[in-house]
Prior knowledge:
Layout: E1 6-8, E2 15-17, E3 31-33, E4 38-41, E5 55-57, E6 62-65, E7 79-81, E8 86-87, E9 103-105, E10 112-114, E11 129-131, E12 136-139, H1 150-153, E13 167-169, E14 181-183, E15 187-191, E16 194-198, E17 207-209, E18 214-217, E19 231-233, E20 238-239, E21 255-257, E22 264-265, E23 279-281, E24 286-290, E25 310-312
Amino acid sequence: MSSLEVLDLSDNNLSGSLPQCSHNFGDSLLILDIRRNKFEGRIPQTWTKGSKLMVINFSQNKFQGWLPRSLAKGKMVKALDLSNNQFNDTFPSWLGNLPNLKVLILRSNKFYGPIKTPKANHKFPNLQIVDLSYNGFTGRLPLKFFQNSNSLSFDGAEHLTYIQVNSSINLPDNQEYTWNLEYSYSMIMTNKGVDTVYSKVQEFFTAVDFSSNQFAGDISESIGNLIGIRLLNLSNNILTGCIPPCLGKLAKLESLDLSQNKLLGEIPQQLTQLTFLESFNVSHNNLVGPIPHGKQFDTFQSSSFEGNSGVVWKPIDKEM
């Protein structure tokens, strides 16, 4: 199988461990998809040796243990989805030196511990979508890891080089004929409180989901640097302090979920500047004061603010 470019074993009933020889597919393999099976055990440490893989999807299996450090050798990897397994490890900061990594999905595993300040060479320079939800991460929000990302920190699609998360991948020309292969890559993220399947994400889509962990402390003002972000979900953590007014700088933001934390103070008036905001949820915190009015805020229902005993919600009278 030295010329194999795509190996898709997804949606079968395959079981057992990943063979130690699974890395011996030659230099041509670009896509490896074994999602939605019953594979278990550990991933071999050597399986990415000499790899040119661009897309790796091991999601929805029963893999366990530590992530193989050999993943750091996958310099061509653009999308890595390890969600819905039983990996038990600390945050893989060593993946931050992968120059082409755009999508990192670790949701619904057993990752744990604080995410420490990144080393100089672990900066995730082109990360576009990161989902760490439903794990056991602790400590402060790891914003420093991702504030150097071109995709999250720049405003405008001209800075984003990744194709769609679910998109056509153009394979190299064959000597005898030219052919293109469309390969579907989807992901699940929590939006509007619901697990949503994103099967066709536009190239400018950028998202951060840190929900359902044990992150604590306040939300740093540095979050205002992620001006290219479209979806931000920090819900179901132990965050304290006030909602930073600098969130109003995230002009492209479409969905903001800060619910089920311990946030204090008033909802900043600056958030009314978010004219693209379609979903907003700050329910079940310790917020007080009036709800800002104007623009998108006049469209949100009371459920977006419930569970805050000090919040004053008054529906807008709409003229017939």
